[in-house]
Amino acid sequence: MAAWAILLAVGSGFTATCATYQLFSDCVAPSPQCPAQGAADQEAVLFLVGDAGSKEFDRNPVMQHMNAAVRTLDQQGVPTTVLFLGDNVYEEGVRDGHPEDLRLLGAQVEVVAGTSAKGIFLAGNHDWGNTTKASGLERLVNQERALGVFRAEGADVVLAPRAGCPGPKQENLKNSSGDVLATLVLLDTSWWMREPPTDSLCGATTREDVIRGLEGVLRNAPDVPLGSWLPTILFGRGGLTGDMRGLSDGLRIGRD
């Protein structure tokens, strides 16, 4: 899969635009230009990045460009969050004894390394090992542990929700004064389609728990942005089979 990235400028009320950068992709089709703006035009920046786990950093023009963009924003004092939307390591997640998998993950960590920006990683089906077997959860735990090593080295990176947990997990987007501009609500929709065993540290352990959690979040803040690997209303195939109707119903109930 080709990596791509898009930027959202975040302000009060979660105003989202392509204000600063164009859509970056290593696909052949060119991206439309967006008007150039400076640090004064945004209170915070959120990058959305998809399918980034197929190339190492020196062969990944999208990650290289984002690295430069994040560093520029950091120098301007603009709080920046990079949300990796899943499939962070192709093809089978982070395997034991395969350093090349860590290099693929490290290419994305490099985007925020050495800056004050935060990198949030969602799980996709490839991060679960592209399998419904128990080994899939082991691959995701490996990724979480690897991100922990990168974090100990100074990069502000995290897997959210934590490995094996469905969410919802909330992450605040703040401006330079520490004011909360928006709250991201994060789900592991690959868990939803597999429903593997979870541990007692997960806030939700059943599909019903997930829906109740979403209902509570959406009733308190109905305009929150929702982050997940698969769309919550799915009309096509995403490499897996599964029933997402209960989750989309929960979202509709939460907004009533």
Describe the structure.
This protein is α/β, with parallel strands linked by helices. It has a single domain (4-255), classed as Purple Acid Phosphatase, chain A, domain 2 (4-Layer Sandwich), CATH 3.60.21. Helices cover 30% and strands 17% of the residues. It contains 6 helices and 9 strands, in the order E-E-E-H-E-H-E-H-E-E-E-H-H-E-H. It has helices spanning 61-76, 99-109, 134-152, 189-194, 207-220, 245-255, and strands spanning 4-10, 24-25, 44-50, 80-84, 118-121, 156-159, 169-174, 180-186, 226-227. The strands form 2 sheets. A 6-stranded mixed β-sheet has the order 2-1-3-4-5-6. Helix 2 links the parallel strand 4 and strand 5 (118-121). Helix 2 packs across helix 3. The protein is flat, with a radius of gyration of 18 Å.
